[in-house]
Amino acid sequence: MSLPFITIGERRIGADFPAYIVAELSGNHNGDLGRAVETVHAAADAGADALKLQTYTADTITIKCDRPDFIVGGTGPWAGMSLHQLYDVAHTPWDWHERLFDVAVSRGLQIFSTPFDATAVDFLSQLGAPAFKIASFEIVDDALLAAVAATGKPIILSTGMASLEEVAHAISVLRTAGAVETLVLRCTSSYPAPDDSMHLSTLARLAEITEGPVGLSDHSLGSTAAVVAVTLGACFIEKHFTLSRADGGVDSHFSLEPSEFRKMVDDVRKAEAMIGRPTFGPGVAEEGSAVFRRSLYVVEDIAAGMPLTPLNVRSIRPGFGMSPRYLDAVLGRRVVRDVVRGTPLSWDTISDAS
User: Taking the model in full, what pTM does it have?
Assistant: First the structure.
């Protein structure tokens, strides 16, 4: 049984609440604690609800090995690096975490992390992390899933590359191990992710099979995906964040700068306002426009006792008269008093008999 929302700190995250927007620091600190702290402040200024870290070391996530299996292929910015080299550059030192937690809290940001092994889960628990994120690449690690579930904290599960069966299995492992609050993210594990690889319509299917809240871990360029995802039911948006792409960094090439992140936040909030709730009839913003609807008006002077005809009553603007739907019903009936041209037609001016 899944809950329709998760709670991180005092914040409920689900379909009935504003989207929760997370700035992902990842390796964009470039090995500089001062830059990491500055990034936390910038994320708060840019409108983020939370900051997310990644908690691992090169040795907890891989081994030092130069065999081909351990070399990043392709032509991207990481090509040719060994996994150990990449993660050594990208990791956030564990002795930075407490400082970053303190700075985030001082700025009103919630802060949590992605652990990559059980030692990271224990470490983050000691820091009082209010939630845990499972990265897409770790969704297949049952032992890690169980260790995170055992904390009793809310869990955000990313599903990049995962088959439907793998998603269902991971959810089953989490729930069996005691997880109560889970939120599942649509994710495309490509850096950056091409637009046509996003398949955001999957969000509805994820919500259906997990019976819980869903969101987006977004590696696409720009902020369009975040806005589209919110219109499709996402209540959690995670986006990589950097002070400046020009400064480099392992994830900078697909991260948003502060002004771009602020625009994404603003656009998401506008989208939420536009989505609103199902409603009919004139809303508050339309009240002044109702007078421009058509209604029935007397368009020629009519003496008392004379009939209404297509020549002396018409459907015109403004909207202060009877609805035009009653035109056929009133034609042929007689007026009970003199009526001058430009008078809105009402039932009390018409006799009951024709």
Answer: 0.89
Pair of tokens at residue 246: 């020009």
Alpha carbons 185 and 217: distance in angstroms, whole number: 6
**How far, in Å, CA of 328 to CA of 310, rounded?**
10
285-349: what CATH class? Answer: alpha beta
CB 217, CB 185: distance < 8 Å: yes
CA distance 322 to 305: 20
Sequence ranges of the chain with CATH classification 3.20.20.70: 11-56+91-275
List, by residue range, all CATH 3.90.1210.10 domains of the chain.
Answer: 285-349
Cβ within 8 Å of residue 43, ≥6 positions away: 23, 25, 51, 109, 241, 258, 261
Partners of residue 296 on adjacent β-strands: 315, 322
User: Topology of 11-56+91-275 in CATH?
Assistant: TIM Barrel (3.20.20)
According to the model, what pLDDT value does residue 354 have? 64
Report CA-CA distances (Å) from 322 to 149, 291, 295: 63, 12, 5
> Tell me: the pLDDT tens digits for 89-127?
999 999 999 999 999 999 999 999 999 999 999 999 999
In the chain the first and final C-alpha atoms are separated, in Å, by 66
What sign has the CA pseudo-torsion 276, 266, 220, 62? negative
Q: CA-based angle 24:16:44, to the nearest 5?
A: 30
For residue 270, give the amino acid letter. Answer: K
Determine which helix (DSSP H) or strand (DSSP E) holds 319, and give its type and residue range.
Answer: none
Q: Does residue 218 contact residue 6 with C-beta atoms inside 8 Å?
A: no
- What are 18-50's pLDDT values in tens digits? 999 999 999 999 999 999 999 999 999 999 999
DSSP string covering 46-67: TT-SEEEEEE--HHHH-----S
Please give the Cα distance from 322 to 329 (Å, whole number). Answer: 11
pLDDT of the residue at 284: 79
